[in-house]
## 1
Amino acid sequence: MKKKLVLMFGVVLTAAITLNACGSSNAVEPKEAADIAVNTIIFNKDVEKYKNTFGKSATALQKNNKDTFTKRLAANLEITDGSMNDEIGSLYDVYTKRAKEVAKYTSKVTKDDKKNPTVEISINGLDMASLQAERLAAFNAEVKADPSIEKDKNKSAEAIIDGYKTAIPKANVSKKAVQVQLNLEANEEQWKMKDDETFANNLYRAFFTGTAQ
C-alpha cells in the first residue's frame, strides 16, 4: 500500500510539474506582445488581449501620455494656468485620429531571450516636418491680420493650436521609419514592459511626429 501511495504521489507530482512547465510557456510570443501593445496604446484595439498579455489595462498609460503631451505643450506655449488644457487635449485627439488613419509599423525580435526579450518596432509616423512651412505661413498671415496675436499669449496659443488642427489632417505618412525598443520581462504566464511610460511616450512621439526621442 505504501509503495502504491508513493507511486501515486510521484505521478501526481510529475503531472503538476508538467502542468507548471506548460503554464509558464503560455505567454504569447514577444513579437505578438509588442503588436498587442502598439495596437492597444496607439490604435485602441486588442484591449482585452492587452489585459491578458500584460495583466492590466492600458488606460493609465494612455491617460499619462495625453496628460504629458498637454503639460509639455502648455509649457512651450507659456500657458501654465490650465486655461488651454481642453484645447490642447482636443489637439492630441486630432493627432491620434490621423495617426490611426495613415501611420504604420512593423516589429521584429532583436533579442531572443525567454526571460528578457527585446522587440524593435519600426514606425512610419506622421510627416509633420513637411508641413512646417505651411503652418508658419498660416500663423504669419494671422498675425498680419491681427498684430495683437504676437503680443497676447492666449491669442498666440490659440492660433498655433488652430494651425496644427488644420494641418494635421493633411499629414502624410513619413517615408523614413524610426525605431522604438520594447524591453519585455517574463512575468509568470504574461509579460511585463520595462519602463512602460517611457516606451509609450516614445511610441506616441514616433507616431505623431515621425521622429525618435
## 2
Amino acid sequence: MTFGKLLRSLREDRGWSLGDLAGKVPYSRSHLSNLETGRRAPVGDVARLCDVALNARGDLIAAANMDYVARIDGTPWQTAELLQRIQISDASDATIASLNATVYELCCQYNLRDAIELRAESHGWLERVGKMLRKPVGLKAHQELLVSAGYLALLAGCTEYDLGMRATAEATRTASLELGIESGHAEITGWAHEMSAWFALTQGRYQNAIDAAQKGQLASKGTSVYVQLLGHEAKARARLGQPGLDALLDEGQHYLEQRPEPERTEHHFVIDSSRWNYHSMDIHRLAGNLDKAREYATSAIESLVRPDGTEISPMRVSEARLTLAVVASREGDLEKAVDLGIEGLQGSRKSLPTMLMVAGELDAELQQRYPKERLPGEFREAVRAASH
C-alpha cells in the first residue's frame, strides 16, 4: 500500500477528517489531501509526524520509504517477458543438467552477492536459455526446464524486491507462480505465494499477508517453504496484535524437526532451523517477549558472523541488530539502542523493504519513548540515508 492510501486508511479508521489530522500535525488540509492522493510525495518529517499522530507503529514511515525506492522501478515487465520466452523453449538433457547446477549455485549466492549483480546474472541465464533452447524434448526434460526457470524467476523476483522494485518484482512473482503451476512443482508454487506474503507484510497489508501465507500453505504442504509461510503468517498476526502466535511457532518448530537438515543452508529456497529462529526472533520482539527476542537475536549474530567479522548472511544479521536495538530501547538504554540500530542499517547486502519495515518500527519506538532526546533524530536520519 502506498503512503497516501495508508494515510487515508488510518485517518478514516480513526474517524478523523483532514481537518482533524491537520490539527495534530503542522501541515494544512490541502497538503495532507495532496499526500493522500499521491500528488505530493512524503518528504521531510511528514511521515514520522503522521505516524505518531495516527499511532501507526512505524507503518507510515516504512510506506514513505518504500514509495521512494519504488520510484527507481522503470522496467516492470522485463523479467516477465524473458520468462514467457522460457516457457515456449526446449533443451537437450545436457543443457538442462548444466542449467540446474547453475541455478542451484546462484540460489546459494543470494545472501551475500550484490542484488543488482545477481539479478543481472539471473537475467543473463534467462536470456541464454531463451536463445539456446529451441528443439522439442521429452516431457520429463521439459518439466525440468520449467523448474529451473521457475527458480530463476523466484531468485530474480527476490532481488528485484530487495532493490525496492515493487512492480517488477510482482510481475516476476506472477510469472514464477505460473511456472510452478505448469510444472506441477509445489515448492516453486509455495515460494511464489511466500513472495506475495512477504510483499504484503513489508507494505503493511497484514491481512493480505495472512491470506497469501495460508494459500501458500495449502499449496506446499510437505515442502520446506511451508514453514516459511507459517513464519510470515505469525509475523503478520503479531503486527495485528492477534492471538495464536505460540501455536504457529510450535507448529513450525515441530515441522522442521521432522525434516532432514539441508545440505547447503545458504540456498535461499531451503529452510533450516537457524532461519526459523530468525522468524521467532521477530515474532517475540513484536509480542514483547524481550528475553526470547534477545536470545534469538544474539544466537543469530553468533551463528552468522565468523571470528574474522565476516557476515555469512548480512540481511539476517542486520535484522538481529535492529531487534537488539528495540530490546535496548525498551530497557531504557537509548544510546545502546541507537548504536545498534545504526549498525543494523550498515550491512553489505540489504533487503530494503524488510530493513525499512523493521527500522521504521524501531524509529517509532524511539520517538514514542524518547520524544525530547536528540539521539532518536540521529537514527531517523540514518534510516533516511540508508533508504536512498
